[in-house]
Amino acid sequence: MRDLVMRKEGRETGSAYVTVLLALFALTVLGLALAFVTETEMQLGSTERTLERVLSAADTGIQVATAKALVVPDNRPMRLELADPGPASDVSIQNEVDVTPLRPLLVTPCNLCMINQGAEFFKIDHAVTANVTRVVWSGNGPRPAQPTPVARKSVSVMIDFQPWQQSAQTFAQAIEADPTEIRF
Length: 184
Known about the structure:
Layout: H1 2-11, H2 15-71, E1 78-84, E2 91-99, E3 103-109, E4 122-138, E5 148-164, H3 168-176
Antiparallel strand pairs: 1-2, 2-4, 3-4, 4-5
């Protein structure tokens, strides 16, 4: 009987070792999966942050073009180079914003202006597009001839000015511009 008990105990001596190895393997797989998911989430967050900054640069370009059209008045295309502070001191980041001219699409008499008896004030709907390219380069020096583009975004909007007096010169500038520059 004693011999039978010893044989039974002898067969179970390695089972704890196998159980621990299986548990460690399962925990390792779980840890690797968690690391992979975390890395993917970090990359998605970085991409989302970059696209949000590019969209903000496009919005800035459209706002500057709108202000220029209202104050100067000047509807011509323009280019903005907006420096962006990078995460590291040895990397330069810049948003290059190309804004198409504000193109008048619909000109009607201003329906809000009680003073509009001579039809001098109008309601004018304009179309404008901002094309943004986010570029990076190493170093804090001047922008190289071919920096690395990391994101591109194109934003088209319609802007309504009412009441507005548009001069013939600004109207002619907007009409002369290339209509293919504006995309919807």
